[in-house]
């Protein structure tokens, strides 16, 4: 079973190497990010995506952008670190992992003693720790969640919460990978995840490379699939989980949760503990990113809607906690009622 690595240091250590997910599934292209524009553009345009991977890329990107400033005075360097972190943070406001990783980097910079080179070295070590911890976190999510999958399980997922979205084996896909490693048979069904098709472009590509059976369907077919063919489990990732268990995830997740409840299918969220946001009381307090209309009115360069039509295009929706059967994190399985704080 071959699992890819979506974000890491470049070979010379001077850049952040990512898989450009905009080019999948047509071609596998890796890019090295060196400048602030490289980093923010990659995150904003979804060349790198998935809450954990965005957090990692943001932390590592901060290092490669700040490194050439190492000869500044401590005060000027720290001010520059804060400015760069603020710019990177603003690229994707909904997912909590980016802000979490950057806040951790800022605390590291403030703690570091010595000159600019020492501060940069400390930041590099911290970003590397964030990457390595994410890899271990993914494995633990997989180990905690794998018992939820019986041999022969039929699993429905949405968007991409696999290795492409993290530094390790993924979040929602981690229990599937661990179950398959242990010898169980798992069949995966994946929503296209419109409008950007992360399910069909990314999850199906990733699972095919791992030799796991996968079937793609449009988002509107999920309820029919549950009724006509049977699904044992829905499992999705999360970009932010509020203190009460409300879950912000890729648009279309809420629809899936409603259909799962009606058909008696357990609806499970798998996410790192860093995605838990005790400071956000409920989903009503989550800032939902609105994206450009062209994502909806075009498929590639082909227009699919009348010119000038109004477009509603939130990147995420919020699934109420009472539709969530369980939340699997690296700390274990959480059951209702959810109280993260």
**What is the number of strand segments?**
16
Helix-strand pattern: EEEHHHHHEHEHEHEEEHEEHEEEEE
Instruction: Specify the CATH homologous superfamily of the largest domain.
Output: Translation initiation factor eif-2b, domain 2
Shape: globular
CATH second-level architecture of the largest domain: 3-Layer(aba) Sandwich
Question: If you compute it from the alpha carbons, what radius of gyration comes out, rounded to the nearest whole angstrom?
Answer: 20 Å
Q: Name the structural class.
A: alpha/beta
Number of domains: 2
Characterize the biggest β-sheet.
7 strands, mixed
Strand order of the largest sheet: 6-5-4-7-10-15-16
The CATH class assignment of the largest domain is: Alpha Beta
Which consecutive residue ranges, at least 5 long each, have pLDDT under 50?
none
Q: Approximately what portion of the residues adopt beta-strand conformation?
A: 15-25%
Average pLDDT works out at: 95
Number of helical runs? Answer: 10
CA-to-CA gap between the ends?
A: 38 Å
At the fold tier of CATH, the topology name of the largest domain is Rossmann fold
| Helix proportion range | 25-40%
């Amino acid at each position: 079973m071959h699992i890819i690595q979506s974000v890491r240091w470049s070979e010379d250590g001077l850049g952040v190497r990512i898989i450009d997910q905009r080019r999948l599934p047509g071609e596998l292209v890796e890019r090295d990010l060196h400048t602030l524009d490289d980093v923010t553009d990659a995150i904003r345009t979804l060349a790198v995506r998935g809450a954990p991977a965005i957090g990692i890329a943001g932390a590592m990107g901060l290092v490669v952008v700040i490194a050439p400033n190492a000869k500044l005075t401590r005060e000027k360097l720290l001010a520059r670190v804060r400015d760069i972190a603020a710019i990177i943070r603003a690229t994707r406001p909904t997912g909590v992992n980016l802000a979490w990783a950057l806040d951790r980097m800022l605390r590291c910079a403030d703690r570091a003693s010595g000159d600019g080179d020492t501060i940069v070295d400390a930041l590099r070590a911290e970003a590397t720790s964030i990457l390595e911890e994410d890899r271990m976190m993914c494995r633990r999510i997989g180990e905690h969640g794998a018992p939820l999958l019986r041999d022969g399980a039929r699993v429905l997922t949405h968007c991409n919460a696999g290795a492409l979205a993290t530094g390790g084996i993924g979040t929602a896909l981690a229990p599937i990978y661990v179950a398959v490693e242990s010898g169980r048979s798992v069949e995966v069904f994946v929503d296209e995840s419109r409008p950007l098709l992360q399910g069909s472009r990314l999850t199906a590509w990733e699972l095919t490379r791992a030799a796991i059976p996968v079937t793609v369907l449009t988002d509107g077919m999920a309820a029919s699939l549950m009724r006509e063919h049977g699904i044992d489990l829905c499992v999705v990732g999360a970009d932010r989980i509020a203190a009460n268990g409300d879950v912000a995830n890729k648009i279309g997740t809420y629809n899936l949760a409603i259909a799962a409840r009606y058909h008696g299918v357990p609806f499970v969220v798998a996410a790192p503990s860093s995605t838990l946001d005790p400071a956000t009381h409920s989903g009503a307090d989550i800032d939902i990113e609105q994206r450009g209309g062209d994502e909806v009115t075009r498929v590639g360069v082909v227009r699919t809607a009348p010119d000038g039509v109004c477009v509603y295009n939130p990147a995420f929706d919020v699934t109420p906690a009472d539709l969530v059967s369980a939340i699997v994190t690296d700390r274990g399985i959480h059951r209702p009622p959810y109280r993260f704080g």
